[in-house]
Amino acid sequence: MSVTEIAEPTANASPEEQVWLGLYRQIFRIRAFEERAYRLFMEGLVKGTSHLSLGQEAIAAGFGEAMRADDYTFATYRGHAHTLARGTPMAGVMGELLGRANGVCGGKGGSMHLTSVEHGAMGSYAIIGAHLPIANGAAWSAQVRGSGQVTVCFFGDGTTNIGAFHEALNMAKVWNLPVVFVCENNLYMEYTPIGSVTAVEHPAADRASAYGLESIIVDGNDPDAVFEVATAAIAQARDGGGPSLIEAKTYRHGGHSRADPGKYRPDEEVAEWLSRDPVPTYRQRLQERGVAEEALVSIEAEAGADVDAATEAAKAAPPPAVEAAYTNVWADGGAAWRN
Amino acid sequence: MAELITYRDAVARGLAQEMRRDPSVFFLGEDVAAAGGVFKATKGLFEEFGPERVRDTPISEEAILGAAMGAAMTGLKPVAEIMFSDFLATCWDLVAVEIPKTRYMTDGQVTMPLVIRTANGGGLRFGAQHSQAVENWAMAIPGLKVVAPSNPRDVIGLLAAAIRDPDPVMFFEQKSLYPTKGEVPDGEIVDELGVARTLRHGTDVTIVALASMVPRAVAAAEELDAIGISAEVIDLRSLVPLDTATVVESVKRTSRLVTVEENPRLVGWGAEIVSLVGEECFWHLDGPLTRVTTPHIPLPSADALEDAFLPSVDRIVEAAQKVVQ
Q: Which of A88, A96, A147, A339 to mutate to test the interface with B (most CBs of B within 10 A)?
């Protein structure tokens, strides 16, 4: 069966159903990709580290579906989901994780630096807080160019305690920038409960008023809820209404990174959040709304086929050529620092 | 035609030249707009180009450089001012980790046409937190171009080249040079990055200097001339790209090298020049490769102490004499 054939059942859906299926396609694709990425780590095919979005898929999905194709996203080192949610082909993302020449960054970025500018995925930044001021810059550029583009910047709860977060929110408000800041609060700053190191209960939302922004909290495991707040915030930014700060409550299914089994989290807490796993929960909701089973199955089959194809493409791709390490330091394509 | 203008006024003239030419050039920083900059180096720009293109920012260095970076990635050519180069430490993540690496890490998906202007170096009795010469910090980071003009003409020409360059350029203005004057020709001035200038030809020793060390090197060469030593003086102008060809060619002729840098001794840029010359001119040398630097101490504030420790004309003369003997 070709991808085109299995995708067809969604084509006749109502506009509302199209949105639901779009959200389900996003969360399922991210889930399938992240599970495969985890397996490939365990097999030793992915080197270095990785930070998965298992359990947090609904946030990237909700925003991805609410954005215009030419909008910008800025993500963190936990950025596989956000890069995929903009439509970046899986093969290039998988190739980058495996350090292969077909990687979306030619093997120079890796898991923590996925970027696909042609899809508006303007980079994944691995220094906490760094990309919030950079997202402002893209928003400023869109503002002065009058392009109507909106910038969405994702980050974790731990980011709310670093200076760049506060510098960026202040400037975004003062300059009335078309930017949406999205805090994915998964309750843990790496290994430490965020509540134990933060002066306020809601690390992002409780800071909003300091920058003249509305305090917005959303269930980050609910794709519909995320899509709704994303749509409103993006519309506000596009209409010249300025920035937003959204705190999405969610939970990592695994540890912080590959090296972390996440044993510091209480069993009851893990169990409670697993019962709110966005993928089966949303699937059930769509069934209850009368969405055809075959539409869901076809999305799942398509995602599975894409992950398989991406895995095979990455495994088959050669490692980057050694000479490639000396390219693209400068805009002339080279790396020369002397004559 | 030419006119005599200050290094300070050359900054505003260079920026205005490029902002008139290219509407995608924007300028941002602390106190730069209505106030014209704390050193008055950007006076008149706000009046000519307005608040959209000449922007005052909060005291938020990460926000300033982040805004410049994101804008550069998406179609603008920002010039960001970091008031004192010492403050680069507060936004070093942007300078060293984000701006120079993003083009590379994305394998060329983004371009980073931005300039970071900053007032660098000592001589104004400001003490150790407002007087550092840190161009060597920037030189150590792959992906940054590093420029430091020594005179008003070069301020304009190199600033224009930096703004037109598609890569990130650190533009170090030596703050004690702001009131100094130099002749500047009429009309547009645009230089090329990575081209050193030989200011004085000589046969006995090559003196390589940068920024405020250049006029001192020239003065030293004049004194050396009076005692029978013929010194060649090279204004490096740019550390990255580095015009090694000019330096190597000169040292092969003179067979001796003295570098004059404002950096504290350890890992100043002179060490890199000495290392290169050692490798590439070794068989032509007739004297020890010698560095004149600030001692490896934080720069003290008192005028008597600051004057004693920054490389002086006397110390350059002494070093050259020793090498030639």
A: A339
The answer to whether the Cβ–Cβ distance between B66 and A127 falls below 8 Å is no
Residues 6 or more apart from A86 whose CB is under 8 A from it? A64, A67, A73, A116, A119, A120, A121
Partner-chain contact A115 B110, CB within 8 Å = yes
Q: Name residue, tokens 């299926």.
A: A21
Is any Cβ of chain A less than 8 angstroms from the Cβ of B73? yes
Return d(Cα A203, Cα A195) in angstroms, integer.
Answer: 8
Q: 0.90 cut: is pTM over it?
A: yes
Return the CATH architecture of domain B2-185.
3-Layer(aba) Sandwich (3.40)
Which domains can be identified in chain A, with CATH numbers? 3-304 (3.40.50.970)
CATH 3.40.50.920 range(s) for chain B read 197-324
For residue B160, give how far its alpha carbon lies from the nearest alpha carbon of chain A (Å): 17
Residue carrying the six token digits 């110390």: B315
B67 touches chain A (CB under 8 A): yes
Q: What is the pLDDT along chain B (325 residues), one digit of tens a residue?
A: 899 999 999 999 999 999 999 999 999 999 999 999 999 999 999 999 999 999 999 999 999 999 999 999 999 999 999 999 999 999 999 999 999 999 999 999 999 999 999 999 999 999 999 999 999 999 999 999 999 999 999 999 999 999 999 999 999 999 999 999 999 999 999 999 999 999 999 999 999 999 999 999 999 999 999 999 999 999 999 999 999 999 999 999 999 999 999 999 999 999 999 999 999 999 999 999 999 999 999 999 999 999 999 999 999 999 999 999 8
Residues of chain B with C-beta less than 8 angstroms from the C-beta of A163 = 62
With an 8 Å Cβ cutoff, are B103 and A328 in contact?
yes
Q: Answer for the pair B25, B18: CB distance below 8 angstroms, yes or no.
A: yes
